[in-house]
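#lab-general

N.A. 3:47 PM
ok so I finally got the sequence cleaned up, no stray characters, all 184 residues accounted for. can someone with queue access submit it? mine expired

B.Y. 3:52 PM
send it over

N.A. 3:53 PM
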Amino acid sequence: MAKTTRYLALLRGINVGGNNVIAKEDLKQCFEDLGCENVRTYIQSGNILFRNTSKSIRKLTGLIEKGLSQRFDYAARAVVMSAAQYSAAIAASPDKWGQADDQKHNALFTLSDITPEQVVSQLPPAKPNIETVGVGPGVVFSSVSKKHLSKTTMMVLSKSSTYKLLTVRNHNTVFKLQELFATI
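B.Y. 4:20 PM
back already:
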């Protein structure tokens, strides 16, 4: 029997604002039909943990995007990371990221079309005392003051075409997914 690797797929643009609504059970079945094992979903925003024998992230991502697009009739996009890649990305988060209650903490995972460094280079400089921005492998970390959300450089990003090349998760989801890798 072939050895499997633990993976996470972060789907972009499903179950947000009533668009591309897909039930967790249907996502799970689709991934199983694509040859994934131990499939587990977390919340309704497109987080799927699974095992697969593939050693190529690029091929696995293509398989998942094609399978989702055909089954659910939308242009699926996904970030796929192994457990090791995800751990390395999260380990690169800025000190105390996700810990200050007066801030909103997001991880912006990049699709294959763009690097985190390219995303950050398109932003104005972070505003001191309002926000911090950091980069890890395949991810941009953002912490912004909840009081000053409308004044942050992240607001610029959310209105740009680059935003379509990202899939965003809050810190609670990021840390929970890291925990859930042990269950698959």
